[in-house]
């Protein structure tokens, strides 16, 4: 299955993606992760992306689209994939549609994780990420057993540069302006499925699984 996880920053896309890709054995394609890896590796792409990310702005469409297009031609995506954090603009969604039409591989579904604004601020400022394996924690809602140490790999937990209150506010504004319209876009295509993201992590997961189980083997 070919799935998009849609939702504001902090909705729980990454958290759910971690679990979903294990359950359904799908490659996890997170544009945010791709950019952070490029920054860490010090590549030209990383340098370009960092400028925008640090300001809480979106990386330009042409750059993002070309990366995702290339990624979707890699052999491991033949059996499907989970897109996390892409598309984020109407232009990206249209470019993806065109690309998938050419490949004759339509999207299976778009899962919109719905969470109220007030909750997002607390989720993002309390988020911690593992340097080793990328696992996501929250200091209050999903803490690791030992502070600053990843339960899964023993790696060090850190706070993302863009999870400060100022940048978070900017990112939420950018979300409302540029990404939220995609809800209507996919609703019109008849492939949108919204879940209540304010529930516990496990409950959100169960709700998504219930929806996706209909598509296993497609
Ligand atoms: P996104 O990828 O959509 O930005 P994350 O998955 O990184 O979101 O989650 C943002 C923060 O909120 C993380 O610290 C995560 O542990 C926490 N979180 C995720 N889902 C929930 C939930 N259902 N309830 C409470 N906290 C959550
Ligand atoms: P979040 O947890 O807020 O959903 P991500 O890790 O998905 O964050 O993205 C972090 C940053 O990377 C974004 O604020 C943006 O600058 C950049 N980025 C990620 N995906 C995209 C995209 N599809 N289009 C443009 N910029 C993106
Ligand atoms: Zn780890």
Count, helices = 9
The major sheet is characterized as: 5 strands, parallel
Residues in β-strands, percent = 5-15%
| Uncertain regions spanning at least 5 consecutive residues | none
Q: Which strand order do you get reading across the main beta sheet?
A: 2-3-1-4-8
| Ends apart, CA distance between termini | 5 Å
Chain-averaged pLDDT: 96
Order of helices and strands: EHEHHHEHEHEEEHHEH
Helix content: 40-55%
Number of strands: 8
Derived structural class: alpha/beta
Which small-molecule species are bound to the chains here? adenosine-5'-diphosphate, zinc ion
Structural Rg: 17 Å
Overall spatial form: globular
What does this structure look like?
- This protein has 218 residues and is an alpha/beta fold.
- 48% of the residues lie in helices and 15% in strands.
- It is built from nine helices and eight strands.
- The strands form two sheets. It has a five-stranded parallel sheet, with helices on both faces.
- A hairpin with a 5-residue loop joins strand 5 and strand 6.
- Helix 1 crosses helix 9 and helix 6 crosses helix 7.
- The longest helix is centred in the last third of the chain and has 15 residues.
- The chain starts with a strand and ends in a 6-residue tail after the last helix.
- 32% of the residues are buried.
- One adenosine-5'-diphosphate binds next to helix 1, strand 6 and helix 9.
